[in-house]
Amino acid sequence: MSTTAEPRTSAIEVRSIDYVPLAERHGKLWHLGPLWFMSNAQIATLAVGVLGVGAGGNLIWSLIAILLGVVVGTFFMAAHCSQGPQLGLPQMIQSRPQFGYIGAILVWLFAYLQYAGFNVFNTLLASESVTSVTGGGIGQVKLWLVIGTALAAAAAVFGYDLIHRMEQVLTYGFLVLFGILTIIVLTLHYPAGSFSLSNFDLTPFLLQFSVVAGYQISWAIYVSDYSRYLPPEVTIKKTFLWTYSGSALGAGWIMFIGSALAAWAGLSFSGTGIAELHSVGNEFFTGFGGIVLLYSALGLLSVTALNMYGGSLTLISALDSFKKVRPTMAVRLSMIAFTAVLSLVVALAVANNDSFQANFSNFLLLVLYFFIPWTAVNLVDYFVVRRGHYAIAEIFKPDGIYGRWGWRGIVSYLVGFVAMTPFFSTEHYSGWVANAAGGADYSLFVGLPVAGILYWWLCRSIDTGAERRLAEEQADILEREALAHERPEV
Description:
It is a single chain. The chain has a domain at 22-353: Hydantoin permease (Orthogonal Bundle). Helix content is 67%, strand content 0%. It has 20 helices and no strands. It has helices at residues 32-40, 43-48, 51-54, 59-81, 83-87, 96-99, 105-134, 138-158, 160-186, 202-218, 236-265, 274-281, 288-322, 329-349, 356-385, 392-395, 407-420, 432-436, 443-458, 464-483. Helix 1 packs across helix 9 (160-186). Mean pLDDT is 89; it is low at 1-9.
């Protein structure tokens, strides 16, 4: 099938965790660029870039840490994205071959908490952005929380194609507005020593690197959700490159702005960057800062829609582990509604909390800790052990070849996680290695190789040839059942 085929015109997406048959594959490969660019080009990403300066680092070393974190973290999320067109499956259901039909719930729980957590932060930031322009107190913030959540849920209901188109349109506006804003930021006057390479402090440098890398890796649980309708002919390499370039550019650009604004504001920094965006934007002309914030709120709502969409797929996957779920439109809509309500209730409950920066930093580090071992196991399985060949029909069978409990994946994940604990460095807990290193966090460099290498070693006995032959035998019936919206049966 041509990679330039036009998308289908159906209004509301029907599929959820089920395999996308080849006859329904559509879209253009370049669509991944603006999708992942705009997913990162929003205020939550800006808030990631302020943490190094906020922890006492100077601007130049914070920018270097951001650059390195983006380069490293985006590599893993883009590698995951390349799985989507080849398998035709959402991201988290792909964990069953490593962790088992039931065992995969371990990572799905963490994934769902991530979706819900990011929704809370995103909707809070969007509401505060709008309120800072329109005026009003906490009552207005809560009103915009409700409105924003409803709009994001509506976009998630329409699904895959609408989300892609929405991010494409928003990208054009961002390039114009934030292009102008970037020029203004470059002309600001920064404190003495901001660009001195001699003012190096390892702890804030590693904090900034870790949260950036963790933030980028956190996208790994999303990415195949938004590439699975592409035909497999797009190739792994090209899928990787379009995803990597879009995500890295969006993340690096907006994080650089966040770090610069934090350094410029100094002790008066607001913690979220909203006040600084408003003030600096108005340097162009009065009211431009408000336009930037309102547009930023739209970007936050679009990524909230991504969270609700992905969260609903993860929740359906988890429920399917206990009782077979026929992936109908009604099931998907009910899970989106549940995810939206859950996130809204939590956001309303914490709307008065003033510790955004500290809470966001701790949340990002937890995301990093939970998903480092998973990303290592999943990627080693896909690229090294099975080399992209799976018996997809077996993924949906409780007693299929992947089993109920994938002991190799579970053991590798837990060992990798435990190996990281001495290196954890957060506000509430620091491991003994982190304490000895003055708070520096090296956990990323431990969890990845430990979990990945152990999983490879444990998988040496897997008969991947037999698995590939089974996949070939089941290919035709898989396509027929998928077209009929039936799930594979034992």
